[in-house]
Design a protein that fits this description.
The protein is of the alpha/beta class and 441 residues long. The chain folds into 3 domains: 87 residues, SRP54, nucleotide-binding domain (Four Helix Bundle (Hemerythrin (Met), subunit A), Up-down Bundle), CATH 1.20.120.140; 184 residues, 3-Layer(aba) Sandwich (Rossmann fold), CATH 3.40.50.300; 119 residues, 434 Repressor (Amino-terminal Domain) (Orthogonal Bundle), CATH 1.10.260.30. The protein contains 20 helices and 8 strands. A hairpin with a 7-residue loop joins β7 and β8. The longest helix is centred in the last third of the chain and has 27 residues. The protein starts with a helix and ends with a helix. Bound molecules: guanosine-5'-diphosphate (GDP) and magnesium ion. It catalyses: GTP + H2O = GDP + phosphate + H(+). It is an enzyme of class 3 (hydrolase).
Amino acid sequence: LSERLSGVFDRLTKQGALSEEDVRTALREVRVALLEADVSLPVARNFIKSVEKKATGQAVTKSVTPGQQVVKIVHDELIATLTGEADPGKLKIDSPPAPILMVGLQGSGKTTTTAKLAKRLKEREGKKVLMASLDVNRPAAMEQLQILGVQIGVDTLPIVKGEDPVTIAKRARTQASLGGYDIYMLDTAGRLHIDAELIQQAADVRDAVNPRETLLVVDGLTGQDAVNVATEFDDKIGVSGVVLTRMDGDGRGGAALSMRAITGKPIRFVGLGEKMEAIETFEPQRIAGRILGMGDIVALVEKAQEVLEAEQAERMMKRFTKGQFNMNDLKTQLEQMQKMGGMEGIMGMMPGMGKMAKQVQEAGFDDKVITRQIALIQSMTKKERANPALLQASRKKRIAAGAGQDVSDLNKLLKMHRQMADMMKKMGKMGKGGMMKQAMR
Ligand code: GDP
Ligand code: MG
């Protein structure tokens, strides 16, 4: 729900606030969860600190415990940290042939991921892809890519024994140009540990082809270590995105958080198995739930939030049913509608109002109309807004002129206000008969 709306509700209802003690107790649990998920210690520490600041003093939803509320805040903050790009799966592959360089340690899943991505680009985006293995250290590595290529129906650069990585990369570029490929993917060699030679090799290739994307493939199970690897690769070669593999395992994916927090690099994809289809675009939501291992609580808090909103709507309704629906209220309603893209918004949230919302919408109630109506209300004085009955002909003229509209527009607005106020009052009366209470459930 929109922040603005909750802002409105906050003014209407006085809720309890999270105390420092509540926050601290809950965060102790969260800290354990983060460390268990392999989030690196400094990252976990910083993260907790920032949540602590945000959470202390925040309003507590009635239907949950403060602890659960903190978890919800933690969850939202996790998602914010994990989110790197609006569309992480969108690779820069314009100006064909676009080179994509795959780097990472040995065994991290580079070759597998190269083929997975090639398959995806071919099938989802209709791209013509060429794959080339630059792994001259292990003879079997080149064949591995070739076999995968045959399996997924993607071409691989013919293997020529004795070439160095840069020569192969250049040959791939030539072949890609001549063959009309959209993309050529370069699968580099890895080592068990980062060493100068490995980095130099990748840097040379980078300088030779100037890749559009340099994707770092990291084993998501390695936790802390993954971050060091990422930092090193980024410093020395420059990385445009990260692919976390083995996220199908038992690991809780804390590496994702550490990676984002320390390197700031967007995570683009996650590998979810050995099969060629086992790759997905990175989804912060999913990983956040997994890192916390508290998905149920988050769902619970979300549910509670809904309940709270219903309670708040009810409180608003009570006021309205006493005939206290004024122009300010109408303005709020209109703004909510605008924000939520239509009448289904707040009106829909109020029991019994859904039908009316529909009627208004059918009467050609679009965004432009709403904007004009808000302008009319804005050109009223405070007193007029609180009590529209004050509006006499001369005042109406002034208001309409102030909003650059006709008096007839204003009359329409006033009529609508009257109808809404009446309707709410009537519903209030029904409420005394118990119907309202029933509708509230
Ligand atoms: P490279 O040395 O970086 O090229 O790594 P490979 O691509 O050869 O992968 C090493 C091993 O990890 C292979 O057995 C792959 O099948 C496996 N692998 C790669 N990605 C994943 C993944 O996302 N999940 C799982 N479970 N295994 C993977
Ligand atoms: Mg390999």
